[in-house]
Write a structure and sequence with these properties.
Subunit structure: Homotrimer.
Shape: globular
Helix content: 40-55%
Strand content: 5-15%
Distance between the termini: 46 Å
Main location: mitochondrion
Organism: Chironomus riparius
Bound molecules: ligand LCXROUX7
Low-confidence stretches: 1-26
Mean pLDDT: 90
Number of helices: 11
Pathway: Lipid metabolism; fatty acid beta-oxidation
Number of strands: 9
GO molecular function: delta(3)-delta(2)-enoyl-CoA isomerase activity
Amino acid sequence: MNFSRLIKNCSIPSRWLLANNIRYQSSSAAQNLIQVDINEETGVSVVSLNRKPVNSLSLELFKDFCGVMDDLEREKVRGMVLKSSCDNVFSSGLDITELYPNPSEERFEAFWLWFQESWLKLYASSFPTVAFVNGHAPAGGCVFAISCEYRLMLPYYKIGLNEAPVGIVATEWVMNSLRAVLPGKNAERLLTSGRLLDTQEAFDIGLIDQIVNNEEEAMARSEEFFATFDNVPKLARALTKQVYRKNDLNQLIKNRSSDAKQFLNHILRPETQKIIGSYFKSLKDRKKD
Ligand SMILES: CCCCC/C=C\C/C=C\CC/C=C/CC(=O)SCCNC(=O)CCNC(=O)[C@H](O)C(C)(C)COP(=O)(O)OP(=O)(O)OC[C@H]1O[C@@H](n2cnc3c(N)ncnc32)[C@H](O)[C@@H]1OP(=O)(O)O
């Protein structure tokens, strides 16, 4: 992967992104884990997460997402709307089968590095980004949403970072992305309680920007958001965003391999495996009730 393309013409040196020297290789073209639809008239790209049934985030999905982000940077799209093509779920977060039972070190490290990479590409994208949260967005699903610049959400779904209740501490770059969206005390409360908020609650505290009732409305609101930048030179907009987000980006860029190692150690601890295992079992059992 050519990381220097990631932050084009930007003041964040691309050498920082080369730290792990990982390469993009489309892993799953046949599975079509990400669908991309570019509207030639408006220049807006609609990117749909498409890993049925609940868009759990796997290594292959992260790799494909990074490839798509590279393509959109190359195409110089006017804006991106990120949504789901699964019914009722935006994304159910990290694929728990990547974490349990006892993943191999090699697979987990690759998984985590591509998760980081996806976040870096989304958080630092030169084009404006909207998350259309058209379903539940717990944990890693919420991370995707808060990494975009603007959030629209359908009613009656849940969003939040529910790591703490299952004994897990969200990593610092995730906390930083939340802090960038919510005023400090609300961000801390959301993280420490691990509560999933319904759409109205999420709107009331500012986690999402607008509630929309259907996809048509979401596309119209996205268009309005993108139009606010029509008279701003693209490069100035991109650099302003990237410099504004630079501290958050640097926190991860400087610590990528230690962040991966730290989470590998955490995930492989027998206590953590036990917690994740019983959480996963409870998810499966819920269906039987
Ligand atoms: C828990 C360990 C976390 C370890 C994290 C480590 C570090 C944290 C650091 C950084 C922060 C960012 C990372 C966050 C961590 C995560 O994202 S972990 C994943 C957390 N996700 C959840 O808690 C959501 C779990 N899912 C649900 O609540 C529901 O599935 C849903 C999304 C609300 C949808 O409900 P619905 O009724 O429509 O569907 P089902 O529940 O029947 O699910 C269908 C099918 O899919 C399986 N499944 C659901 N979610 C996941 C998942 N995340 N990974 C793998 N598989 C999943 C579910 O078990 C069903 O399977 P089936 O019974 O075999 O059909």
